[in-house]
Amino acid sequence: MKIMSPFTSLCAVCLLIGFSACQAEEPKSSKTETKMETLKPEVVLSDEEWKKRLTAEQFAVARSAGTERPFGLIYETFEKQGEGTYYCVCCGVELFTSNEKFHSGCGWPSFYDASKAKNVFEKVDNSHGMARIETVCKRCGAHLGHVFEGESVSKDTPTNRRFCINGVALKFVEKGGKAPELLVVESEAVQKKKEEVAKEGGVEAK
Q: pTM (2 decimals)?
């Protein structure tokens, strides 16, 4: 039986610890991938239907993962807005409020946190040769922007994070104003039942 030298034993232990550390990190990555795969928006419409509801710019950003021009009119308007709430331009669900808003100087609306985390979904985005975290509306899958962590511009915020959001993907309502109605898409079963009832009544189902 060959006895290992102290140096060889130390190297073996270090290799074992390093391998264990890599193994421990793997489940975290797997969870992220699983989270991405399990996103199932409650509101699903065809591109044709979205185009009827949105402007060309809103569709290009929210439904086609585009990016609006930085430091544009939308950004200038955002900077001047006071207290209020920001909703998804596609489905009307609440995403951010002026409480989480801060001036980052990046040219796009910035928030350090979501007002209701359950409505903003984060997923890995490896497009354009970059590794980023994309943010989307959990309710309808609309592209909002990206979230960055540990930047100099967000170091003084409570979360040290910057949600870099396209203003065109948001609908702002001043404090005390009426929130937009939630877009509700009925299931095929419900729509079929409505059509049957309408047919029996001799009217056209809406």
A: 0.74
